[in-house]
Amino acid sequence: MTFGEAVNTCLKQKYATFQGRAARSEYWWFTLFSILAQIGAQIVFAVLASMGEAAALLGIVILAVVVLGLILPGISVLVRRLHDTDRSGWWFWIALVPLVGSIILLVFLVTKGTEGENTFGADPLA
Fold it and tell me: What DSSP character marks residue 65?
């Protein structure tokens, strides 16, 4: 899956879809897009904040829209990625365990998905 396909899938086709599976490429391309969009929004905020209070308020609104708009598709693609490794989406909460939780979740996210059909659906690469 390419960068554009991943962004299109996560934002248009499966914005809040928690069923099914997501390949590693879909997850990581969308994560890159999310990071770049948030950095861009922060730059816009910084520029607008230097122009005065009214402009800074507009910058805060833009930043909030970007961040809030990407939370739901980000969580849904993460859950679908966990499904690809044949794990429940509830494993998302392991990130709350200090230090080791995030490392375990990262390992799950970089692990190759199960080949063929699993509990959560058909192979996204097939």
Answer: H
* Tokens read off for 93: 């909460």
SS3 40: helix
Find, among 126, 77, 87, the residue nearest to 107 by Cα. Answer: 87
Q: What is the pTM of this model?
A: 0.90
What φ, ψ does residue 19 adopt, rounded to 5°?
-95, 155
pLDDT in tens, 21-35: 999 999 999 999 999
Q: Which residue has the tokens 């598709």?
A: 73
Contact 31, 7 (CB under 8 A): no
Give the SS3 label for residue 118. strand
Rounded CA separation 47/69 (Å): 21
Structure tokens given for 113: 């998905």
Taking the C-alpha atoms of residue 87 and residue 112, their distance in angstroms, rounded to an integer, is 12
8-state DSSP, 11: I
* 107 Cβ neighbours under 8 A, 6+ residues apart: none
